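Hey,
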Amino acid sequence: MKERILLFYPPGPLFQRGEDRCQQNVDDGSAQAMRACNDLGYAAAVLLKKDYVVKLRDYQTEKATEEDLFRDMEEFKPDMIMLSITNTTIFDDIAISNRLKEAFGPIVVLKGALFYDPEEAMLDLLDLSQIDYMIGGEVDFAIDKIADYALRHEGDIKAVHSILYKDADGKIQRNQFHIWDEDLDGQPFPARELMNNKLYTRPDTDEPMATIATSRGCPSNCIFCLSPEISGKRVRFRSPQNVLDEMTECYEKHGIKTFFFKADTFTIKADWVEELCNLIIASPLYGKIAFTANSRVNPLKRETIFLMKKAGCFLVAFGFESGSDETLKLARKGATVAQNYQAMKWCREAGLPVWGYFVIGFPWETKKHIMKTKKLIFDLSPDFIEITIALPFYGTKLYDMCKENNLLAQSVLGSDFFHSSMTGTKYLTVEELTKLRRNMLLQFYLRPTYILKKMKECVRQPKVFLNYVKYGIKLVVNLFRH
């Protein structure tokens, strides 16, 4: 009889559980949309290749309940379960996995950035008594090997990189971290036939939007980001043809025409972007698909922006972060305020809309630093923005800095960008930061010029206008709720 495995996001608030880099709180953000559960999709794909029976459900995005989860456990009877966790939801995630273990007795696997070479002191905060395996690295290079070992008694569990596991005595062992697999083209595409693709949509049009991971790793040194730690500082690229093949499969088999290119920085290698864009332009997909991607303002070429626009890019997102060169330098962003302005200028010239991400509340920041960021926001006037309060993830230099300066109010577990674990900066309380964030967002989005501009853009798209209204109401409610 074939072994059965359930992969899921547990019921509860919406979080970007597949995003080890930021694990964004979608419910409390200004205009975030839930991205596809690619981590579960990749896990399913490699398990299907090994002839396991797999069920995949994203309970949180479906707005399903714990009762739905328990019903699936009773009916599907999995031998193993794997759930994707976040730093914020970890206590609730463990609680639900413990209840499932006690009721049904499956092998329990947790997957999440929290388990990437973690401090023993952090593990001591968690009740891991019912947990068997913890994946801290890339799930598609680990989950099938764990299943083979746990369910089929095949392979060597000590050879699986970037995981924690219980030995025969119940003691947690850790395997080697900081080793990354190279053959990304050799991995199967996420098992989208098991995913409810209609759950993951483009925010303005509500069209299904597939997430496609184009590369892994980041050479940057930003003090607040986990990516170089988890995915390595050397960028591992998929071939442009392999990416186009996945797009074609999405289009032909699943009817998906909109894509989010997931990469720590999509434009870091201009030649690679040029090759992909030219492949799209020369393919039958040209003119039928649209895509969005994250980028950095440095490195970036004007020609890259124009070619992306021609190939179908409808929005590019930049981590501008700050309007203070001092903050950008201390945060090791590897960019300048002048480059922020330059990137926006090129996008305006290309007619490419921009989403801007900004961060306030670094340990050294005064109100003067934040007012420079506010000036940058209004000078650039991106089409959409998000402002977050600096969050010190375990494993980042920002965490070490906050710890050294006694700026941690509590454990970083259970906190997120909108519910900070910090007491504030050296000069501003977290309450003052929260108020500054709220005022900046309200002043930006409630400008009459901004509202009129968006209304003009939606003259022929009433559905888009209604979505803007929906997100606007959500923004205001969230800002005054916190």
